[in-house]
Specification:
Number of domains: 2
Number of strands: 0
Shape: globular
CATH superfamily of the largest domain: Tetracycline Repressor, domain 2
CATH topology of the largest domain: Tetracycline Repressor, domain 2
Number of helices: 11
Order of helices and strands: HHHHHHHHHHH
Structural class: mainly alpha
Radius of gyration: 19 Å
Largest sheet: none
Distance between the termini: 46 Å
Length: about 210
């Protein structure tokens, strides 16, 4: 491996380490309670290293927020690439449940920020989230107009999907407690995913034959 490649790999690994530490700190302490020193301590790196990659706490925070939103955007490809609501909405629910399982800290950061009035990312909500939501609502409306699902307000459906799927990350401690003190295992996650998808699609009057 060339020296330049090794250096590049080390940089990527160190940045990943910083982002993982920051995600945990922001999720637990919020933006106001987090400090660059605390993030450095969790990452087990000198504080100077954190500032080398991210000059300010806000820059690092916005990177965390944009990352989880980018992950959610990938989940939304189920809408864009589907042939109808069973595949589109069902696939979106599956993807969001997987994100809740694999990226719980990022979801908690987002939830905390929004619950506090989005003091840091309000511009992001107004510029990115509004456009994204409008686009997904239009897709859902086309399925409604084509008689492929019940006539409902698309935005309320999206809110319900977000609330249900993100519950599994934002309230994972509660779920773990109710599960006898242990996190959901693979079988339980599969059951939870199937249950959420089945209830929502059935309520929308969508045939699930293609989702079997």
């Amino acid at each position: 491996m060339k020296p330049a490649t090794r250096t590049s790999n080390r940089r990527r690994e160190k940045e990943k380490r910083i982002l993982e530490a920051a995600e945990k700190v922001f999720a637990e302490a919020g933006f106001g309670g987090a400090t660059m020193q605390l993030i450095a301590d969790v990452a087990d790196l000198p504080k100077a290293n954190i500032h080398y990659y991210f000059q300010t706490k806000e820059e690092l925070y916005r990177r965390i927020v944009s990352h989880i939103f980018d992950v959610w955007l990938e989940a939304a490809q189920a809408f864009d690439e589907s042939s109808g609501p069973a595949e589109g909405i069902g696939g979106y629910i599956d993807a969001k449940m997987e994100i809740a399982r694999r990226h719980p800290m990022g979801s908690k950061v987002w939830a905390s920020e929004v619950m506090h009035g989005a003091p840091v990312i309000q511009d992001y909500l107004e510029e990115v989230l509004i456009d994204w939501t409008n686009g997904r609502a239009e897709v859902i409306q086309t399925w409604i107009d084509a008689g492929q699902m019940r006539a409902i307000e698309p935005r309320y459906l999206l809110y319900m999907i977000w609330a249900t799927t993100q519950h599994y990350s934002d309230f994972d401690h509660q779920i773990t407690t109710l599960n006898g003190g242990t996190p959901l295992d693979d079988t339980q996650w599969a059951q939870a995913k199937h249950t959420v998808r089945d209830i929502i699609l059935t309520g929308l009057g969508i045939s699930q034959d293609s989702q079997a």
